[in-house]
Every structure is written in C-alpha cells, then in structure tokens.
Write a structure and sequence with these properties.
The protein has about 350 residues and is of the alpha/beta class. It is about 35% helix and about 15% strand.
C-alpha cells in the first residue's frame, strides 16, 4: 500500500522542500520542529516551499524506517487538579508540526515512582520520548541522562508554579504603573502561602511599595479563588484609603471587583484592580480586566523543542525567556481618584452600603 496524496501526485519529500527553499534538509527539519534560531527570511522561504509542494510528513514511512512510534507522552501527576492548558497546547502543537502525536499520561506516586513509571513507559516502546510537567527523581533518572526525557522545571509535585512561572517581578511593574497614575495606598490580595508564586509576588509587591515611598494597607492571604477576592473587598474598612488593589490572579481580581461593586464603588473610577494570568474571560468581563500576560504557549513549545532535539540526537535549543511577561492595562485600572487623600479622610470612597 502506498502513501500518496489523493490527487495522485507523488508525496513531496523533505529534500524537495529543502531544494525549493534553497536550504539544507537539516534546516527544514529544524523548521518542522519549530526550533528557534532560524532567520525570518529563511522561515518564509520554507513556508512557501511547504505550501507550494503541499508537503506532509510521511509518518508511516518514518515509523518503518526509524522504528519509532511517532508518539510522545506528556506526564502529569495522576491526581492533579490543575492542568496547564496553554503550556500543553504549545507543546502539542510543536509535536504535531514535527509529525508526532501526544498522549497525556498521569503517573501516580512520588517523584521516585513517577520516574520508574516514566522509564517503564519508554522501555515498552509505546512512545519515543517523554515530556514531564512534574518532577521525576534524579536518583532514578540522573542529570545528564541522554534518554529522550525532558523534565519541565516550572511545576512542583503538586503542579504548583515554580521557577520562571513563579517569578514575582511583574508585581513591581504593576505597582510602578499604578504609582505613575497617582495611586499611593495599595492592597495586595495574595494567593495560597504554600505556592512559590504567591510568596514571590507578595515579596516583590512589598519591596516595591517600600522602595517607591508608597503605602501598603496590608496583605490579605487568599486561596486563588473568586471568593477570597470578594471577601477582601467586602471586609476592607471604610477608612482604609486604598485606591489600588493587586490581586494574586484574575479569579481573585474578579472577586475584588464584584465585592467593590456590591459596596457601590466604581472600578476604576474609585479604585483600580489588577489581576494576573490574562485568562480569556478578562477581555469580556465588565470592566475589562487589567492583568499580567505570561506566554505559556511559548514555554510549552520550547520544552517540546528540547525533547524533539533529544529524540533526534541534536543539541538542545536554549530557552528564550526575556519577553515572556507583559503587563496589560485594561478597563479595571486607571488614574487615582482626584479627591484622594491618604487616611481616614478617604472614607467617602468606601462608605458602607
């Protein structure tokens, strides 16, 4: 049985794509794996060649030639309640562009048992490589092991953010941005204290407020939920004088906004609110929500590109993290109220309903 396009023409090869684009077949291979380092002009030439030749990877032929399954396992803890959808989406798309399908696999137990399960999966030859979003024991899989396993270091055993995802520096940008709009007294509604991301955001918030000579009314320790944000806004004393709130995430920010609205306060005219994560609903909420955008799709693509390089025995591409965060001001933040003063005189802004 041959594997030809339905129009009867012979399937284009990677070498024909390379010849049409005027590049090497190794460059086309890097393009198909969505690796970085290709010049825009080179990528455009390959784009045109792929489109003109209607190139599609021949997965059956590749599997027979290389004895590969063309499948990759993405590993999560078995009982996790959090699935990093944007990261998974970026990783799966990169695998698909390189001719691989992906399976999400839950492995039970601690890091040692998960590592043993990962190796058993590889040894069974059901998959060509593993991308793990949960830690795997380095006593089972030693650092430098050249087997096709990439352990993504942005989550801990419970899928709590760590590493780059837990970077609190955007909190400083938010505080500076709001200070430039005239805000002087702030409130932070934090996430759960057992998350590195919550601790880092709180530390950066408090440090920046102090550095800029601003005032923090305090920090409310929440649990990442809408309810924790609502309760923080509802319970804020009438004479608090707070005109800007930094919420731990967009769900907390949603609760803060609703809590203020139920007290008769206008957002952002009376108080500004900033969220974090740029969830899809933030663009459709009323008011639209100021937030922090984290390019998790790119992070997932970079992790999968590293695994594909291992599978092919090529050097792993270096991650590019310089522009992953971006603060996105929208309708929930604006200039401080013109009548703002610090202290009890601002009670008019927080009159109880």
């Amino acid at each position: 049985m041959t594997s030809e396009p339905r129009n009867g023409r012979k399937r284009a090869t990677i070498w024909e794509v390379a010849r049409a684009a005027g590049v090497s077949h190794q460059t086309v291979s890097r393009y198909l794996r969505n690796e970085g380092g290709l010049r825009p002009a080179t990528r455009e030439k390959i784009d045109r060649a792929v489109a003109e030749l209607d190139y599609r990877p021949n997965l059956i032929a590749r599997s027979m030639r290389t004895r590969r399954t063309n499948r990759i396992a993405i590993v999560l803890p078995e009982l996790t309640s959090f699935v990093p959808i944007p990261v998974l989406k970026g990783a799966a798309q990169t695998a698909r562009e390189a001719g691989y399908s992906t399976d999400v696999v839950g492995l039970e137990g601690d890091a040692v048992r998960r590592a043993e399960g990962a190796l058993a999966l590889l040894d069974s030859r059901q998959v060509d490589g593993l991308l793990s979003f949960t830690p795997l024991s380095d006593t089972v899989i030693a650092p430098g092991d050249r087997r096709p396993i990439v352990i993504y270091g942005e989550y801990d055993d419970h899928m709590h953010s760590q590493g780059h995802f837990a970077d609190g520096r955007p909190a400083a940008e938010i505080v500076r941005h709001l200070a430039q709009l005239g805000h002087r007294r702030f409130l932070h509604v934090a996430g759960s204290a057992d998350w590195a991301s919550a601790l880092n955001r709180r530390a950066v918030y408090e440090e920046t407020v102090a550095q800029l000579g601003l005032e923090s009314y305090g920090v409310v320790v929440g649990d990442w939920s809408v309810a924790s944000g609502y309760e923080a806004a509802r319970d804020l004393p009438a004479d608090a004088g707070v005109t800007a709130v930094l919420a731990a995430n967009d769900y907390v920010a949603m609760g803060v906004i609703r809590g203020f609205q139920d007290r008769g306060l206008r957002v952002p005219e009376d108080v500004s609110v900033f969220g974090w994560d740029d969830e899809q609903f933030t663009q459709y909420f009323k008011p639209t929500m100021s937030t922090v955008r984290l390019d998790r799709d790119t992070m997932g693509r970079q992790a999968m590109s590293a695994l594909l390089a291992l599978i092919d025995g090529e050097p792993q591409p270096q991650p590019r993290l310089e522009s992953t965060f971006e603060i996105v001001p929208r309708g929930s933040s604006g200039p401080a109220p013109r009548a703002e003063t610090v202290g009890p005189d601002t009670s008019v802004l927080f009159s109880d309903m």
